[in-house]
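Fold this complex.
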Amino acid sequence: MATESSGPAGSGGAVARIRGRLEGPNTIGNSRGFWLGFAVAVLALAAFPVVGSGSQFSLFLVLALLGLSLSLVWGYSGVLSFGQVVFFGVGGYTFGVVSINFPDPTGITAAALAGVVVGGVAAALLGYFMFYGGVRDVYVTIITLVTTMAMHTFMAQTAGSAWTIGEAPLGGFNGMPGIPLLELGVTGLGSFQFVYNEMSFMGLFAFDPFYYLALVALVAAYLGLRALVNSDFGRVMVAVREDQDRTRMFGYDVKRVKLLTFTLGGALAALSGVLYAARNVYISPPVFALWFATLPVIWVSVGGRKSLLGAVIATIAIEYFRLSVQGEMALVVLGAMLLVFILALPGGLVPWVAEKLSESAVPVSELDDTDAPGEVSES
Amino acid sequence: MVNGLNLAFQFLDSFAFVVLAAAGLAVIFGIMGVINLAHGEFILFGAYATTKSVTALGLPLPVAMVVGSLLTAAFGVVVERTIISGFVPNWVGQKTVGRDLIEPLYDRLADSMVATFGLSLVMVQSARIVFGNSIDTVGTPFGNVAYGAFSYSTYRLVLAGVAIAVLVAAYYVFTRTTFGTRVRATMQDEQTARALGVDTGRTYMLTFGIGSGLAGLTGALFAPVLSMQPTLGDQFLIEAFVAVVVGGPSVVLGTALSGGVLGAVSATVTNLTDSTTFGRIALLVAAILALRFLPGGITGLVERVRARRQEATDGD
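Structure:
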């Protein structure tokens, strides 16, 4: 926040224009120091497979997309959705069904697109049903939660040959195995297979294309959402979150804003689901389970729901913790952590840290000027 | 005829399940504006406490049920003091750093959901660590009623009776006693109630205790018919949740009505399709539709109709 006044507009040129797009009151990190840190973090993530297991870590990157989608829907437009996993699962299942039926590169590419589109359409339908039906506040949350449960119950009973779409059996509780490896491109013209197993790259180090696909998707989604939430539309989203009635009074179509955000969030969650199914070459009904549905809420609460960066960091950190601590105590610690964060630090960890950092960076004389607008927009 | 009788039993079964599952949640949600996602785990607490009282202490089942309910109520009071109202942490905070550490979760729906979900994770996993993946069950008492080809557990009928008794008792407590008046005053306007001398903090604490006690009672009642595993609370949570929101703002009447409607839907579809899974899906879909078309729940509709009729008679 310290450099905000002297920031983008002053330096000129293309970089400044891009920065201007990406920076604003709705995101953390509007300083040169932040972007330096961001570049270091992305480079570190890019280099990670050399030292660690990229094939495991790619899961966290994929799930971070799911976290981002909830941060957009809940943190920025104020709609707490327990249904992000519905679109995640619908995307994953759609990808599975289409790609099993058309297992050539064109078919698999189309399957990935179909997953995202079907997930987005599902979100649009549910959103239209809710927002244009006058369902408000906590009842939206409850409908999304109940939808999750209905999907879980439904998909768990799809065992048997009656539930086969083309070549693809849905498989009931056992799930749908045999999803082909992710291969993007057009048959005949050229395609690339994102084998999730590590393979050697020019004999120098292990190379895992899927990991880089996930990383690129995550960075692109993060930057894209940053641009979105700092755009005019993003400001309206935040206005809806802060005070729906007043926003409507100013002439904005609150329902439309919510529906658009919800649809976009659903499509992003579906992309996450597509990558998840492609990574595991498998998908099963537990993606709709209650405990899985609450994970995004946990990530986003702990990281700071009004912060895209917080969602990403917390998703990766919590999932890394959850999967690496195999002990019985892992869930107890996770639950206790959630309790402590929501009670003592309702804003989340990352905004709190950012505030502490910017406080220590700003000279005392400037505190009054910079703090006031920051408070209004961040809270 | 036989099918009809079967349907009637199934309806009573679903009704009892929905009402008992929802009672504790409805009290806490309706009065405190807190959604307790750990409700299923409170039921788990009651079921485990009851079962353990029978198997480890050798208490007779009815006594064990009372013990289970009371222990859950006590546990609920502890949870309210430490987490929901933040009384204890804030007291500690005042002593050590001179400020409150947390803000009460009253009327913060989303936050209360997230916080109590954290509690639920801790409780399920603690149950698994302490007791393992299952504990011994106690047998179902009373035997069966037989009618032609069907036989039916008498205990299930008892459950339906208890469900109605719980509704009647709750209705009495919340409308006919001084405590009930205080509770309703606190619910409608906390500040005015406090100004008039109602100890709202204590009212909240007792309400949460009663809600927890009802959850414990549900666990105690279902302990003989369920397999005792740490995830048993999951079976209750969604039905309870759905019943509460479909019921609407009036706690007791809403729970009774939504128990009736949702029980009927679930029983009919189960009967028609011969699949409890489809019955469950139908219940969930009915709930989604109900929320869409009756945003105020069933009692919201009742109140609206009543208000309209009132207006019409006033006009004449």
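The two ends of chain A are 15 Å apart (CA to CA).
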